[in-house]
Amino acid sequence: MTAAEGVNQSAPREAIAQAVREDILAGRLAPGDRLREADLAERFGVSRVPIREALSQLQSEGFVTLVRYRGATVSATSGEAALELLQIRRGLEVLAAQLAAERAGGDVADELSRVVELGRSATLNHAHDELPPLILRFHSLVAEAAGNHQLRIMLSQVLSRVSWIFDQRLESRTGTSWSDHAAIAQAILSGSPVQAGYLMGEHIARDEALLAELDHG
User: Fold this and answer.
1) Among 127, 208, 203, which Cα is nearest to 162's?
2) Residues in domain HTH gntR-type (predicted)?
3) Structural domains in the chain?
4) Going by DSSP bridges, is the β-strand pair 64-67/71-74 parallel, antiparallel, or unpaired?
């Protein structure tokens, strides 16, 4: 089934926004690409009204830029905006790691351990192209392990944008050692909230430093 075929006609805005968001995250739509209402309406088989609503939603999420009389384009994230987003991510993820450790990983403890092992194997085998989805999966699991539904929703949005930002700047995100993730997981699974929060904060601070180096290097 294509993204267009999967649009729910009773609530098309959300489905259209999700399909376009996925195209952006997957690199099928690049920063600066035009998003013409007429083309999208034809693709999804809807009027322009839900298209405008979807583009407005994507603008609020930072994926799309709307300019009066010029229409919509895929956003290009500035270095300053990216660092601001990482600062937000740090606060949310430190909290998520602490809550996850209080629950010792909760229902996803086994899956968290499995992802850590997959990442360790990929690192040892120099399979760096396998790491980006594992990194995203790891952080998504920490958010799930926290057991806070609203926190998980906020982190899902932030993590998608952070992954997209790094993909714009790196062919393969290898700047941060996988050992960071393994140490965070160990602190969570051993039920050490203070350590888990500290390690997560240090891990994301390294991402911030890497991004700053890329933007000024």
Assistant:
1) 208
2) 10-77
3) 12-74 (1.10.10.10), 79-216 (1.20.120.530)
4) antiparallel
